[in-house]
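Usage

Read records sequentially. Each one opens with the input sequence:
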Amino acid sequence: MAIADVAAFAHLSDADVEALGRELDAIRSDVEESLGERDAAYIRRTIKFQRTLDVAARLIIACSRSRAGWLLGTASLAFAKSVENMEIAHNVGHGQWDWMNDPEIHSSTWEWDMVGVSSQWRYSHNYRHHVFSNVVGVDDDLGFGVIRMTRDQPWKREHLVQPLRNLLLASIFEWGIGLHGIHSERDRLAPDAARVGAARRAFAGKIARQSLKDYVFFPALSRSRWRRTLAANTTANLLRNLWAYVVIFCGHFPDGAEKFTADVLDKETKGEWYLRQMLGAANFRAGPLLAFSSGNLCYQIEHHLFPDLPSNRLAQIAVRVQGLCQKYDLPYTTGSIVRQYFQVLRTIHTLAFPDRLPRTAAGDASAYGDPAACTISSGEDAGDMTTSPRSAGNTVAPHRFG
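and closes with the structure output:
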């Protein structure tokens, strides 16, 4: 569907849409002009913390002999991996810190601690996902090619097992991201067989390095206690995968996160692009620790509006975005992470079945391409969904429009 077909935005004129776009551009300009040493210190401090925690966790795993020590070390390692994955690598890969001109903290040089190749992910994620967010058949992140997330996607018998696919994807999420990246590279580079082959070799090399590091090198350092270290590394990777999966799915697939057909891209203006991004994202409420642990992707709306602005600024940006939602009478979708994930699971299980089956819940309208889906009731009827006049809205981020 097109932006104009969404009831929550029907009251806006073309002039309103363009005015909203200019105000969002102003937010970007204000943040860019104020970036400085305080922001640089934040990312350097975060990297130092993560690396220190990683070393400490591995020492605890290797040196402690108790079950409690193993649990503490494994949990610490999982947290260190999550911080590296989300608050550092994901955000550095978006170019959020390129303005520092630091060759060690730059989108073109950072390689993350996962089997996927960072350069391949940057194309599939920064371009195909963020520019064409939630456009069926264009945004590869919409269900990651294995899960049906909207009725705009034709139902197939294979979708009956998508609840199981969902569990598998969650547990091996880093592998899903890696395969996702190489498939996008194949599409981008075809029919140049040589370059496709080089991309595949780069992916295979990254898999080999990651596997050797986590499942051979560190266990070998533990010598007779290698099984203990191997189990800790495997568990930490599993926990990191599960957490990254939950954060990503809660930001893209709960009620209120709309999906679009490709015709929405026809003659799309910058203001309309902002609105489409808003419709395709959702936040979840988080305190400082949860926000940090999620890479500040609890502010997914703001991240989709401004994916290349530093993550430590998203909380302050969110205040201004909510103000714009109030000014233009737009929804701003947010809620507890538990509620958001419950809605995601309900959509996945509902869309596993043919469309002719009756809808089982009024709240899962966003799974069906319903224009009213993004409007969430305010007040007590909204449960723990909060915010603006309509009570839940979405926003967008230019990865530099045009």
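Summary fields computed downstream for this record:
- Confidence is low (pLDDT under 50) at residues 360-366, 368-402.
- The radius of gyration is 21 Å.
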